[in-house]
Amino acid sequence: MPGGKTIAEKILSRKSGTDARAGQIVLAEPDFLFAHDGNRPLAIEAFAELRGRTVKHPERMALVIDHASPPPTAAVAALHVAMRTFARAQGIRLYDVGSGVCHLVVTEHGHIVPGTLVMGSDSHTCTEGALNCLAAGYGVSDIAAAMISGQQWFRVPQTIRIEVTGRLRPGVFAKDAILALVAELGPDGAVYMVLEFRGEGLAGLGMEERFTLANLAIETGAKAGIVEADGVTAAWLQGRTVTPWTAVVSDPDADFARRIVMDLDLVEPMVSCPDAPTNVRPITAVAGTPVHQAVIGTCTNGRLSDLQEAARILAGRRVASGTRLLVVPGSREVFEAAARDGTVSALLAAGATFVPPGCGPCAGVHAGVPGPGETVVTSANRNFKGRMGNPQAAIYLASPAVVAASAVTGVLTDPRTLLE
Amino acid sequence: MVIQGCARRLGDNINTDYIIASRYKTRMADLASLTPHLFEDADPGLAARIRPGDLLVAGRNFGGGSSRETAARLILQAGLRAVLALSFSRIFFRNAINVGLPAIECDTTGMAEDDVLVVDLAAGRIENRTRGRILPFAPLPAVVREILQDGGLAAHFQRHGGFRIT
């Protein structure tokens, strides 16, 4: 007698019209698709390879120019032209240069609501799961197949339930909590599974921190991270979308592969050391390591509260001589809000260099490639060797607070030492 | 479908940045020019050892990280005919199937560089001729076998006009 269902099983059951259970393969219609300019072939090139002529549901799709934005070379500029031409011909919404990282853009513009099935051409599409949807990353052929047919095959994933309890202490953030979990699970601890976040601890986490939690799910191999919806979710969606939605929760007797408690009370500032996100240590273990480039931004931590936290630490201080601080607002919306509330001026006054909204230097194609022998601390999600464009650079991942504190001192620094 | 080849060995957690570094992102339209850079940051000598028809043999969690399909396309471009690993990352697994590269989850712990392997996809069996061992593996899901049989997702769509899932 089968028991209850997880959030992922419920969403895939509804979308496929079957009684979907972990391990099965179902055919289903995604509610929303998006693709970016980050990989060759582009999704629109794969669309041509699959002999696509028209996008079945253009209103359920967006293209986002974020990885190399504005374009660093003539060749990339030509790809952007091709994306604009395709979007115009097919009647698809295109978010052009300067709009921001796809994961911020599609959520801020109200394309994503709870209970839906979302496909993105970026591996960090799991980020959108903070809005209680099943969102996963795909290669361009899978995106193209869904563009053409309106359908895709899905393997129904198992779920690991993460029970969030307690409250983060000052100087500690969702980034630290999720880095600790990534270390606990390892790079393949959740392969093909969903990390489902629930529990009383969520109430203390804003939407922006929940996006950070879901964003790192892929670094454990997970298909998706899904956060339960509540008043915080509803308030964030208010004014962004008119699409009606219903929150999805797991049944109490659902079959979970594993249960883990994330006790926010116990979290310390953490850092992923070179060359893997799972190589996590407390900041106290690596404090004092010289830093040449500090980066605040990306789909992990490029939101308003991230910039504000950095500004709080940098206010009245200066970036250390010998260290560069790059700030990449995650989206135009974030940049505008940070300009209005004084965050941008505070960061500029401290010596920050602004990079246009988008992926910035994270993927190693432009706007902040580190030099040989240099050390970077970034609020991003990946630090594989060569990730930022130079295999001779060392990359540390941390919260925007750790990045800002390290920019001030020029060495990896526990942000609590700079807080009053 | 039976594939015979010589093993090219890699370890655990070979992610897509190690398959092809993101600094080559802007050159990914020209796959042939990128094959010398395959696995460059993980094992700089490996690309030069690959001969057409070889099989890639890896450990746990092969292909984690980015969604770049180029990772799977480049492995095919280099002449490798299948990837055998203890486990695959989800997106890489789908990408491999979509470009027509068999991705086989099996116990690779006893396989070494230069071992001669014969992989029978339909039977779910690998023969290690060098070590005289037979190793069974769980059959691929039906939809995956259909797509592989057609030569990848583009060929599958050209043939059926959409997904054909039986």
Fill in the keyword field for this structure.
heterodimer, A: 420 residues, alpha/beta, Aconitase, domain 3, 2 domains, five-stranded parallel beta sheet, 14 helices, B: 166 residues, Aconitase, domain 4, seven-stranded mixed beta sheet, 7 helices, 18% strand, globular
* Number of structural domains of chain B: 1
How many helical stretches of chain B?
7
The strand count of chain B comes to 7
- Give the distance, in angstroms, between the N- and C-terminal Cα atoms of chain B: 19 Å
| Percentage of β-strand residues of chain A | 15-25%
CATH architectural grouping of chain B: Alpha-Beta Barrel
CATH superfamily descriptor of chain B:
Aconitase, domain 4
- Helix count of chain A? 14
Helix % of chain B is 25-40%
CATH architecture of the largest domain in chain A: 2-Layer Sandwich
- CATH level 3 topology of chain B: Aconitase, domain 4
Largest interface: A-B, 52 and 43 residues
Order of helices and strands of chain B: EHHHEHEHEEEEHH
At the first level of CATH, what is the class of the largest domain in chain A? Answer: Alpha Beta
